[in-house]
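Lab meeting minutes (informal)
Scribe: AK
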Amino acid sequence: MEVYQNKVAHFSNLYNKINKRYNSISILRLLTVFLCLFMLFYYIKTNDILFVVMAVLSFVGFIFLMKIHTKLSFQKQLTTALLKINQNEISFLKREKLPFENGIEFNDFHHPYAYDLDIFGDHSLFQNLNRTATFIGKKTLANKLLHLFPNEVILENQEAINELKTKIDWRQDFLALATVSSDSKASYDSIIHWNSFKNNTLPKVTVLLSFALPALFFGVLIAYYITSKTILLSYLSYVFIANLMVVGRSLKRIQSEIAKADNVDKIIKQYSLLVQRIETETFQSKKLRDLQQQLVFKNAPASVHLKQLSELFSRMDTISNLVTATLFNGTFLFNLHVLKALLKWKDNYSEELEKWIAVIGEFEALNSLANLAYNNPDFVFPEINSEYKIGFSDLSHPLLNPLTRVGNDTHFYPESFMILTGSNMSGKSTFLRSLGVNMVLGGIGSVVCASKANIHPLPVLVSMRLSDSLADSESYFFAEIKRLKQIMDALEDRPAFVLLDEILRGTNSDDKRNGTIEVVKKVIAQKAIGAIATHDIEVCLTTNEYPDILTNQCFEVEIKNNELYFDYKLRGGICKNKSATFLMQKMGVI
């Protein structure tokens, strides 16, 4: 936290300095305008050429100050973003607020674990991890949390995240640049829509006229200046009108190319700056170097190509200004030439554009995971094995308060499946979620909330929290049966890490007990690894039939000084103590 506090002090001081310069330049810029007008007034009054020279110098000064003003404005935005980034981290670490997007739009109730493990939504894993500012960054991080990667990719991600963890200044600069871009799903979709429209040719007649008519216009104009024949002005007006007619015939095509492209030039310019930050940084890990290499195309960096595209979109914006569009198109078919350049750019680089944007998203997602590792130096990268061994030392949930969370040692070998018992509030569900979330993190190459971990990355299948689906007219029980069927079908394809919490709650006790035992037998027959939490002691007796596969673990509760005491420590065996009767008596229910 001290690092973030020092950065807040630094960027606050820097912002004040930039703001003073910004205000000074604003005043000077205004003075140059008045000075230019003042000099022009005195030239008209005195006809002294000196005043014209002074007016021109004032205008040049205004242009120069405009450039400085624009640069300072951008620096001011960046510094504000950097200040906010560090203030957010302090608030986050103090557990005062979660100032990050929660990714609720990516939630999928049919996903094997997204809803059950609170991957998205308020106070979710995504919201705690998310340090992205572009839509593609947010989407990439969400996709990572929903999928399991091959072992070699996990190891590459671990190496990349471990390197980015140390590059806090670079990570924050990158995030600040992404923040000021004001990127959104609409902007991203408009770029992808434009890129996917593949008709990149214009009629040959239109191309020919785009050169012939401007040449004719300026030829007639030069002829008029040489001969001073007024009839040439009539011809000039005819050519001017002909130019406008040609642009008018292409107007529909121009509008289709820039449809839904508001502010796209600014977004793409920011993309080019983000890509440039990647291009100019030195990386050691294979993953980051491979991503960097994808940003070189036709012997030029992607940032140059993106900057060119941004400028083309910016020029095309003139079509919406009636005066400018009429003047520029009537003389030399300006927007038609920009259209040709846009189509040529798309023809050359459209297959690369989405790849370049995807690289930005990949870096944002990896930066988010690197930030998790940086903020939690006690978290570890799990060792990866291919022997179906899963074990954690001091395992806990990464979103719990580090000052109060309780870690537990657990392993799934030689026994591979755990029957977990314990009274309500003893920590069973939290423990299952800790297992699930850390398996998800380990399966994408992130650090996990443990002091030591060794895992065989497996698909995670969970049935923990279901609700009645009124939209589908489903009962809770039927929704649960569908989830169990989904799990069984997935286990037919390959082994998985399965977590079940008090299943079959929608039926009577005998049916529930028998059904739970049969589910356990079916799951372990499919070589699944994992745990099931239950209140039914008879389910625990199944371990007698499968002593080499099943193990009983529990969370106990104690009564101290007429109060319930939970230590949240995992123990071997079956839970013996019960808290429901005591709690109801204490609260006067019975």
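Next up, CB showed the second protein from the same session:
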Amino acid sequence: MSFSKANRSAATLTTTRVAPAPGSGICVTCLDGCKGPCEIGKSAIKGREVLYPMPFGKITAGSEKDYPVDFSHFNIQGTAVGAKGIEADPDKATFPAVDTTTKLGADGSIKLDFPVFTGAVGSTDIARINWEDVAVGAAISGVMVVAGENICGMDSKAQFKKGKVVKSPEMERRVDAFKRWYDGTGGIIVQANVEDTTLGVPEYVIQKLGIEIFELKWGQGAKDIGGEVKLHSLERALELKSRGYIVLPDPTKPAIQAAFKAGGITEFERHSRLGMVEEKAFHKSVAHLRSLGAKYVTLKTGAYRPADLARAIKYASDAKIDLLTIDGAGGGTGMSPWRMMNEWGIPTVQLECLTYQMCEKLAARGAYIPPIAIAGGLSLEDHIFKALALGAPYVKAICLGRAMLTAAMVGKTHGRLMKDKMESEDESIADGYVQLFAVGAQLRERFGKDFDKLPAGAIGMYSYIDRLKQGLQQFMAGARKFALPYIDRNDLVALTRDAADVSGIAYVMDSDREEIDKILG
């Protein structure tokens, strides 16, 4: 059985002429004279441009690899007995009474109304274009939004002195969009990579923009290299090259400039550098961020080999950071090498199971375990429950990358269509939003005259989270767990022997065996 699709993918806008050979993905009969709709053929013309999902700036992409074990290989256990977190009374233990709030931070002082936050919404076009919808959606939903890497470095209007950023209108726009609607629940995280650190982004956003939660980034689940974007003008390529980024092909070379003007090269790539993790340097960075005034310091790591996961957990424990986000392979991207996204890294289920094992070892020695969040291809309420349960009691929140953007983008699209309709009929956009969105009336009551100032995408994201909340409440009530801390690994059952072996969760036919024997005498 093949888990991957080689040499053709909707993500790279490629296909094969006839059925492919399972291993290579090449057509079983490769025809001389074919123009090459496959990935190999397209690469013969466009080369490195075919490495990435297309079209850049208009899509997010998720791995199409069918991993041997995923969250669908587990089911959620229900019970007809008792209740935890509430009195076992049918009039009180109703699913709307389930508490879905969570607390993050070493001291538990970051409060979320729902245990999710966005993926890093960084410097790609799709992230920039949809930022306000996502940020406002997070603010009104009481969850967190993450401003990703390279925002200041990519800002054409940013001002620098002695190589350090002193003003970035784009970063200010990002922060202001969230803070205008922030009511004290949730938060905004700003993330930094190698270039951000070199450009002085931590100092700028913490000291000048008042950012309280700052995230160090080791990587993500979509790739094992730094972030990248595509650039469609020579001027932009030269600008970012001058700011210290890796730009390919090199826009300073006359031959490359000539090729771009002739049309042989249609775009450039801006790449970030690889971070080099060292224990002493990590602790020094955490101490520096705290000295700048960061109230909370977090870490985002990717689907690296298990030893690197151990480093992330141990270093985070020793530094007593406030959140560790662990991103598994197969999740989402705005731009990552497509084959890398499918064929690199530890998948989310296996990565979370390794996380649980490592946390258990540290906890047995009385070590501090930071609140942990899991990311990597999660989207709906069953995923949230399963990920919380699989890593219980250490996993406190779930990072939803593509899913949040999807909800915001769909809300934005329908909002634009509704606005055009209401304007043509000379009616208010607020009335249109109430007609369009299931949550429109409640948000109108909550925000009053400011309701029509909400971006439509933010309403869409709020509506999506509202759906997730009720869905999670229903699962939790069925498991008789009326608050998140009561969810544990026994709330899951493995449907396959492979899933049981990977996770340590009981195989379905072995579940409750001891209790069954007691009941049956």
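CB comment: The radius of gyration is 24 Å.
No objections, moving on.
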